[in-house]
Amino acid sequence: MGKTLFEKIWESHVVVEKQNNPTLIYIDRHLVHEVTSPQAFDGLRQNNRKVRRPDLTIATMDHNVPTTDRSLPILDQTSSVQIKTLEKNCKDFGIKLFDIDSPNQGIVHVIGPQLGITLPGTTIVCGDSHTSTHGAFGALALGIGTSDVEHVLASQTMWLEKPKPFEIRVEGKRKNPHAVTAKDIVLSIIKNIGTGGGTGTVIEYRGEGITDLSMEQRMTICNMSIEAGARAGLIAPDEKTFEYLRNREYTPKNYESLVDSWKGHLKTDRDAKFEKEFILHIDDIAPQVSWGTNPGMTCDVTDSVPSPDEFSNGDPNQKRGAEKALDYMALEPGTLIEDIKIDRVFIGSCTNARLEDLIEASKVIKGQKISSHVKAMVVPGSQMVKKQAEAMGLDKIFINANFEWRESGCSMCLGMNPDILSPGERCASTSNRNFEGRQGTGGRTHLVSPVMAAAAAIHGHFVDVRKLDLS
Amino acid sequence: MKGNVIKYARDNIDTDVIIPGTYLKIHDYAELATHAMEGLDPDFHSKVKEGDFILSGKNFGCGSSREHAPIALSHSGIKAVLALSFARIFYRNAVDGAFLLPIEIEQDAYDGISEGDEISIDVSVNEIKNITKNQTYKMKPFSEIIGKIIAAGGLFKYKPDQD
Question: What does the alpha-carbon distance between residue B3 and residue B131 come to, in Å, rounded to a whole number?
């Protein structure tokens, strides 16, 4: 029987496999950031261990770095300590660090691919759940906790129970690909399969609806695999993948021979079997807006907020969850999504802060001003994205529309730095999680695509971007 | 293991409510624990006692990979979380660091156990006893692998079987 892409990558990385034991797999790349690594380095010191492969380990600071003027000192003492701790750890253990002043600094899942560190067929881990992003390149990319970070630092391996392959086929063509984006595809998937729909699996996204996407759009899809509970998400590499990674700063010297070895091999065999399957037809899907407090609580922009009964299908826990979500979000069932007024707009995060995201959003706002009651910000995913966007004049388009144009980092996606919502504020956000308090205590998050966020900033409420001229 | 139950009768308790992002900068675990569950239940810290259990629905611990989540619960005194299902990174972190036991339960235990009930858990026979209500439920057994890591006291103490 044939093998799935996941099984091929898995098998080529097995170090030890015995019955009734977890499998020890080799890790090709370990990405490190300031929040989930300090205790891991402490653990190494306490046990007199070294980093096994500093050459395969790369660090940056993204989660709590300020997105304001970087020449100013960081006043928050705990943030400052965490940043300095990573600097010291990288120095002590010989790890390459893209620090706060580096032109390569940025969200770890944005810079990996941008620098050619993320490669097809590899295993990648990072102490961050959105590591699944790198799966867009046909890598098996896993988010791990701090104990596993320490284990990988010490051994370049990790123990893992083998996940099950899950096929998600995305069929059809979007009628308006500028208005209906990769974000809308992945939100539609999660809306359908649920936040636990992928638990214990590695999703492979396949079909015309996926191969049609650019690499940056594919990253948006794989990024949110974790929001469906999956261990990882991946997409078989193709010419777009190979082209994207060509001539990047850290692209291997023998790249073309690597490409030859990937072609034909890094794909699911015709007769391979998946353990689970879901098909999404995208010909007629609408832009998506989340209304609740997890990414599965999402509907079309043309819908109204559902009642807990409608949403729950008779499941009492789902009903209670929906009631609590509506209470937290201060929404009444039956309210049209387009009538929901917003206070803040956040264009950023490892889901949607790449160059294409900023280009698409800028088309919506060009020559316009944001609504007078809205505060809006753009936080580019990396310094490189910021520089490229500035070279295209995108910063001016955003600034002229009264957006704030910030330095790169995770920012308001998770509310670790001063970029947070105030209690009760409602935000159209291009990030990945609408959990209670995620963007700041009492903050209300609606997950949307960059074009939907930009349009909401201009109009002060959600609008169906299919009605706008986005060409 | 014996203790009282704090019940959150809903699915999808995420790591952002278990320990909000703003506290991920805290390195002192005792201080971290004072903010456990703050995003969902601001009274948690004042009511939780050493040896208590949390009971909840499906997909407990979904979201971020932050190990701070099981650490904050563990340092609050929580010895086990009983849930209909777990998000895998949370489950793995709880086991790897030997912070607390993630115990998968069936619907009967979820429905039968109420807030404040005193229960005892015997993982050697996969049994949960509700002392308050004099009921007994089965827990889903740990996989052999997870059981071995738990019995060893976490990932760094676990030694794989030798040939």
Answer: 10
CA distances to A24, A311, A313, A442, B96 from B161, rounded to whole Å, are 13, 48, 46, 49, 17
pTM for the full model? 0.97
DSSP string, B55-107: EE-SSBTBS---THHHHHHHTTT--EEEES-B-HHHHHHHHHTT--EEEEB-H
**Amino acid symbol at A143:** G
Structure tokens at A455: 């349009």
A200 touches chain B (CB under 8 A): yes
This model of the complex carries an ipTM of 0.94
Whether A416 sits inside 8 A of B92 (CB atoms) is no
Name the strands in the sheet holding A29-32, side by side, starting at the edge strand that comes first in the sequence. Answer: A96-98, A57-60, A29-32, A123-126, A140-143
Dihedral (CA of A458, A459, A462, A467) sign: negative
Cα–Cα dist A264/A5, whole Å: 11
Residue B35, C-beta contacts closer than 8 angstroms, at least 6 positions apart: B19, B20, B23, B26, B45, B72
- Tell whether domain B2-162 is in CATH 3.20.19.10: yes
Tens digit of pLDDT for each residue in A107-156? 999 999 999 999 999 999 999 999 999 999 999 999 999 999 999 999 99
Q: Give the pLDDT score at A471.
A: 76
Q: Where exactly are the structural domains of chain B? A: 2-162
- For A203-261, write each residue's pLDDT tens digit: 999 999 999 999 999 999 999 999 999 999 999 999 999 999 999 999 999 999 999 99
* Cα(B88)–Cα(B94) distance, integer angstroms: 10
CB atoms < 10 A from the CB of B92, how many?
28
pLDDT value at residue A315: 92
Asked if A229 reaches chain B (Cβ–Cβ under 8 Å), the answer is yes
The residue among B25, B144, B157 with the most chain A CBs within 10 A of its CB, best to mutate, is: B25
Residues of B in Cβ contact (< 8 Å) with A161: 143, 145
Tell how strand B127-130 and strand B135-138 pair up: antiparallel
Contacts for A419 with CB less than 8 Å, ≥ 6 apart: A67, A346, A377, A379, A406, A411, A412
User: With DSSP H G I counted as helix, E B as strand and the rest as coil, what are the percentages for chain A, rounded to 5?
Assistant: 35, 20, 45
What is the nearest CA distance from A345 to chain B, expressed in angstroms?
A: 19
- Bridging pattern class, strands B80-83 and B53-56: parallel
- pLDDT interval class at A20 (50, 70, 90): confident
pLDDT for the residue A98: 98
Phi, psi of A37 (to 5 degrees): -105, -25
Angle formed at CA A241 by CA A239 and CA A246, multiple of 5 degrees: 95
* Burial of A403 per CB tally in 10 Å (0-12, 13-18, 19+): buried
Q: Is A292 on the interface with B (CB under 8 A)?
A: no
Instruction: Name all contacts of A366-369 with Cβ < 8 Å and 24+ positions apart.
Output: A366/A397, A366/A401, A367/A400, A368/A401, A368/A458, A369/A400, A369/A401, A369/A402, A369/A458
* Tokens 């295993």 belong to residue: A123
- The token pair that represents A60 in the structure block: 């940056």
Residues 6 or more apart whose Cβ sits within 8 Å of residue A154: A44, A47, A49, A50, A51, A52
